[in-house]
Design goal:
Number of strands of chain B: 0
Strand content of chain B: under 5%
Order of helices and strands of chain A: HEHEHEHEEHEHEHEHHH
Strand order of the largest sheet of chain A: 3-2-1-4-7-6-8-5
Mean pLDDT of chain A: 88
Structural class of chain B: mainly alpha
Shape of chain A: globular
Shape of chain B: rod-shaped
Helix content of chain B: 55-70%
Radius of gyration of chain B: 15 Å
Structural class of chain A: alpha/beta
Oligomer: heterodimer
Largest interface: A-B, 65 and 38 residues
Chain lengths: 354, 45
């Protein structure tokens, strides 16, 4: 019994982290579907949902004005979700400069803010952005060029994490993010990415349907709806946004927690995604998103089953596991010492949001 | 040398933390906390 659990858990972990990337490599070799990109200038609505972004508003607005795209073809919409830090006053300063502002006095979440923003949009293409990240000048142009291919329904850009020296983040969290982007690039080449990058993605306006209130991952729900509608969701690393990160491992943890909570919500909201006959990227979604949800339980099963297998090579594996977790514990101490954030970050989860 | 050693420690730490995030995410989801605007909110997925 313990052996069966051990090998099943090990196979699950190995598939998610090694087998699936290898499968994608082989799949891409034989099944690559190139996108016919062509530069064009359709009308675009750039929708930015904000709550309390006082410190980012001015830089973001300036960034919008500096984009390499004809101003007559670019509608900028800021949808405010009851900000309490003065964001509204700052955004209103830009209302006379072509920025359209939608304000909600009631705090009802990002999904609703996006719905209100999109309701005002007139562009053929919707580009979604967050306040914190800066677009590269050509980002919108690069995103939009992909829609020359009729099979493309949505395009995700690339978010580049920068350290405080404005170099690409070389921390472990940065490496994890680069691994993630590598997977997305391969998934995109085959058919579609199971989710976009919230900081920078674009869709055809006619493919947008209002989000359910309380949706956590608009950038997964919207693209997956588009995939179910028969269009592709691709990843274009030429369309870049930048974000300066600090305390990156902890930040990445918090972001990841929210993302993975959103994945549970995604499967609850859209159970059809788990039906291979309905979802053309079922393998990618199951391997990438569902697999990540299951790995921690496989890790626990691997460790516990290994405790009942204390002979031969099993013992070596157990020693390896103990060493791995001991190193992780030491890493936690190092990260805690380096960070201003108190060490028991793991316990912080959700305590402020009952 | 010191940087290499630090990275050696941070890789398993990050791996464990990211996996713990999946467990925490389930807890978070079942408690119904959905305020995306929290500073810890999803910024890139």
């Amino acid at each position: 019994m313990a052996e069966a659990i051990f090998w099943t858990a090990l196979a699950g972990i190995a598939y998610v982290y090694v087998g699936y990337p290898l499968l994608l490599l082989a799949w891409r070799r034989w099944g690559r579907r190139p996108v016919r990109k062509r530069y064009q200038e359709p009308s675009v609505s750039l929708v930015i949902a904000m709550r309390n972004e006082r410190k980012n508003v001015q830089a973001k607005m300036q960034n919008c004005f500096e984009l390499d795209y004809p101003s007559g073809q670019l509608q900028v919409i800021v949808s405010l979700d009851a900000p309490t830090d003065g964001t509204e006053a700052l955004v209103r300063d830009y209302a006379g400069k072509g920025v359209e502002v939608v304000y909600s006095p009631v705090h009802d979440g990002k999904a609703e803010a996006l719905n209100r923003g999109v309701a005002m949009a007139t562009g053929e293409i919707l580009v979604f952005a967050d306040a914190r990240q800066q677009f590269a000048k050509r980002a919108v142009r690069e995103l939009v060029a992909n829609f020359a291919d009729a099979s493309v329904g949505a395009v995700s850009g690339e978010l580049v994490l920068l350290d405080e020296q404005a170099q690409e983040d070389s921390s472990a969290a940065g490496a994890y993010w680069r691994y993630e982007k590598g997977l997305r690039a391969m998934e995109s080449d085959i058919h579609s990415v199971p989710g976009a990058t919230g900081a920078i993605y674009a869709i055809r306006r006619e493919l947008f349907a209002p989000l359910f209130p309380g949706t956590i991952l608009d950038d997964v729900v919207i693209p997956m709806r588009i995939v179910l509608a028969g269009k592709r969701v691709i990843f274009d690393p030429a369309a870049r946004a930048y974000e300066v990160v600090s305390q990156s491992t902890q930040s990445e943890y918090q972001r990841k927690t929210r993302t993975l909570a959103g994945n549970y919500q995604l499967f609850a909201q859209m159970p059809e995604l788990l039906a291979p006959w309905r979802n053309p990227i079922f393998v990618q979604l199951a391997s990438h998103k569902l697999g990540r949800l299951l790995v921690p339980y496989c890790l626990a099963a691997l460790f516990i089953s290994n405790l009942f297998l204390l002979h031969g090579s099993y013992l070596v594996v157990l020693v390896g596991q103990v060493l791995w977790y001991a190193l992780a514990g030491a890493g936690w101490l190092v990260a805690s010492r380096d960070s201003e954030v108190p060490a028991p970050q793991l316990l912080q989860l959700g305590q402020g949001e009952r | 040398m010191k940087k290499t050693f630090r990275t050696l420690l941070l890789v398993p730490y990050t791996f464990v933390l990211m996996n713990w995030a999946a467990v925490a995410g389930l807890y978070y989801f079942t408690r119904g906390s959905r305020d995306i605007w929290n500073p810890a909110g999803a910024r890139h997925t």
